[in-house]
Amino acid sequence: MENFREVAAGKKSLKRDYVAIMMWFMGRAIQAAAAVDRAVKKEFVDMPDGFTFALCVMPNGPHMIVGKDQRGLVRYRGWDPEGKTINLQMKIKNIEAAMLIFTFQESTALATARERLIVDGEVAHACAIVRILDIVEVYLLPKIIAKLAVKRYPAWSYARKYLGRVLIYFRTIFGF
Amino acid sequence: MYLPEHYEFFCPVKINSGHKALEQIPFELDALNVRKPFVISRKDDSERGLVDVIIDAFKDSGIAIGIFDGVPADPDLKLIRELFNIYRDRGYDAVIAVGGGPVADTAKVLNIAVSGKPNNIEGCAGENLIKRPLKPLIIVPTLSGTGYEMSRNAFFDGRDYASHFLMPNLAVIDPRMTIPEDAVTTASTTLAALAHAVEAYTGSSKNPLADAYAYTAIQLIMEHLVNVIGDQQDRNGRLSLANAHAMAGCAFSNVASGIAHELGKIVGDVCHVPSGLCMGMLLPHILEKHMSESDYHISDLLLPLAGFDVYASMAENQRARRAVDILYDLLKDLAAVSGGAVSRIWKDAQVSEDTLQDVAQRAVGNGAISDMDCCVKILREAREGK
Fold first, then answer.
1. Given an 8 Å threshold on Cβ–Cβ distance, is A97 in contact with B23?
2. Structure pTM?
């Protein structure tokens, strides 16, 4: 059969690994921010105990799973959704869309507006997660990059921003 | 705002347009329950790297794809049988057409075959002879198309197939696929899209939803066509034109076809000139003819053609004249910016005086226009210029 060939789906291993690392770090940073930042804490208070959400890349990951346990503590619950009850899934449609988000070329809000991710679950909770991601990105990233990554760069006090940044980085790296 | 007593509008095609749009295809296939798509394309598009871009877009999706990149410029039913055998034997469950009109038409007819009519494809030629939904079809257009990705028609091996079921489920417009074509191809396809949009916007069968598509298509074309012909590297311009083609195709599919389209097709066929160029050259002359007729809406055309400031500054009775003049100016600009490669009048495109009578006879014969003398007059004006 001239002009015909079958092509197996290739891999984008580097991009996948980069996104997986960013998700791992972001998941731990959300856990840290929930303990440090009042605004993040408040967003989680409004969610039911036991609530778990996943940010994932379609079709096969990577995943970032974060949940609130029965005592109300926010925990990064790893990258494997197997056996976990997920109440809210935010699915990025493909690895290229995930790269645009995690290289901060597109904010989460803009990516949502451009239909790069879909939500399975309560929209109100998804909006809260987007706000949490924005706050965490402000803590983690220098202003010049964070301005690209968030919808609106906030006018925080120096104490909140820099003290919070130190604490969140410390907690993220050591995982508590 | 014109609202007809009654109208119908139908467009089931999902559009996915923009940066990294191709990477969304696996997601869309999943939604369509497709596991193994079959990509068809032309050899020259494959050699230009378009198929490689598709392969890259499927990376990390877990979906293996079959690729046939040998669709000729004039495909026939023998090819459909060959493609049908590949599709059936390898267990594919959807077709993705990558490229211009012949590829899209091949994909549509192949879809008739793989959806249950492999031995009676010719029997489906004609109006509404396909009676039930076909398998999923995705079209990835290039700039060498005229909005066929939105159309319910396929012209294949000398036969016309027309049915809503031929429309694809998805059209994906990605800037990586709208790579530069030569000036004549870009001008021809875009002038065809402009003619479709203008005739949808001004014709007696216009409706508000088709207007919305036609309006945006006209705006995009007026904003970008001359720039793209002058600078084929204008990526945003090329993406805008590809979007305009799709929108014009949608508007065109929801109104009665106009004289510029019908006549342009015949001239292109008889004189071997790109039919899109013929449609573009005919358009202002035909609008002039309609200017005095009350069921045409030529004065409204000034708004998408020239923008709000010009529209508001003109008296109502002058708007139609100005709109037609803008279309004449567009042809002049295209000829100038392309260094004469895009002809302004038919005489420059080697259309001889002798053929006009033949064209007029065919146009009157197939009902494109009713008045023979009027038709010859329009054709002569388009040939000689004004």
1. yes
2. 0.86
